[in-house]
Amino acid sequence: MKEIDQRMETDSVGKVFLRYLIPSLVGMLLMSVNIVTDGIFVGHRLGGVALAGINIAVPVFSIFTAISLWIGIGGATQYSFALGEKNIPEAQRIFTRSIIMVFLITITLAGIAFIFRVPLANVLGANPETLPYVMDYMTILLMFGFAFTVENILSIFVRNDGDPNLAMIALIVTAVVNVILNYYFLFVLDWGVSGSAGATIMAVTVGIGVLSIHFFKKSSRLKFVKFRFTKKSVAKTFSIGMPSFLSELGLSVFTMGYNIAIAAVAGTAGVAAFSVLNYTHSVILMLFLGMSSAIQPLISYYRGAKRQDREQATIRLAIKTAIGTGLGFFIIGLFGANHIVRMFGDFSPEIVNLATMAVRIFFAGYIFMGFNFVMMTYFQTSNRVGMAIWITVAREMLFMVAFLIILPPFFGAEGVWASIPLSEAVVAASIVIYARRKHIFTKGIQ
């Protein structure tokens, strides 16, 4: 048994959890910096309309991320399970198959989207005012977006192979390079939103180089080996990873839905205000994703090793951490909304007022969102994929869309901002009801 496996099974659950949680949180926080940096620099350099244009193009980025999470989490869950069973050859076949799958699918979809990029921009919510910015940003993403998926899936597997610190370092390097290049391309070379997109792509490429260091470590079990695509193996990867894919796809639905809904009640100023909210949301969302990413290797490994006691302790600790963090974000949004908005630029009073109101209302959803993310990951990695899919579909598709249709005619912009908090609360209640019916909290996690 390797030293990594020994620590997984003998160190205290809290110590193992922190060993994965801290690098995952830091890494995801800095991954979100790649998105937020674009917003901050573009907002200050090019103004609110350009910022709105980038926000409209963000769902393209989300689709690439969704694909990498779909296959990455689906493959990595099987990978860690195989490690728990001490079946290294099978783990390596899973890794190789996952990397090839994500690369082929990304290239194919990007090529199709590039051909139809103008209609795609219009579907995403572009108007004559924002279309030039949307096209400049989206074109770069479609041409080189496969780099996002490669970095993301490598980061997932490196973390699952017992090296969460390297995954964190890679994302730190990516974030630092992105900040430097964004400033240089926008303020020195004056390349506009295309320069911002190019800076992000180049930074991600550097991150891939850092992650590749893991292959040369003695402790690494990540190796490219011969494998076969079988219907069963591909279906299993897609099945396990489906909740992660839908969760990220739901982010695209969220962005499109909010863009359309707020534009209908508040025009371009409302879209610009949502852009500020969405950039802030992306940071917090990544932190919650970091929490769920931290427990995924642990739950998968303990399942494979048949250590139910450690599995139960891990998920309980993650739930407490998520709820406490969500309350903290709610308090920050309630009292610091104006400061958060001002960070993105000097906007008109109308945009500032709309964005400040948005932060104060929207941040209430974080009380429930972290809990929902953690439980989705638990169900996903414990053979309750159906419940995990319900959580992802309900929170950013089913209930959110319903509230976006019902509330704005009565409450205007406030109804738009309140749709996600209400959706998250309803989904959290459904999880508690399900857990009580299955005796998950009363008799221990099954």
UniProtKB/TrEMBL annotation:
One GO CC term, this protein: plasma membrane
Statement: the UniProt record of this protein carries the keyword Transport: yes
Membrane topology: Multi-pass membrane protein
GO biological process per UniProt: response to antibiotic
Transmembrane intervals: 20-43, 49-73, 94-117, 137-158, 165-185, 197-216, 249-277, 283-305, 317-337, 357-375, 387-410, 416-435
Keywords (A to Z) from UniProt: Antibiotic resistance, Cell membrane, Membrane, Transmembrane, Transmembrane helix, Transport
Protein's name according to its UniProt entry: Multidrug export protein MepA
Top-level taxonomy: Bacteria, Bacillati, Bacillota, Bacilli, Bacillales
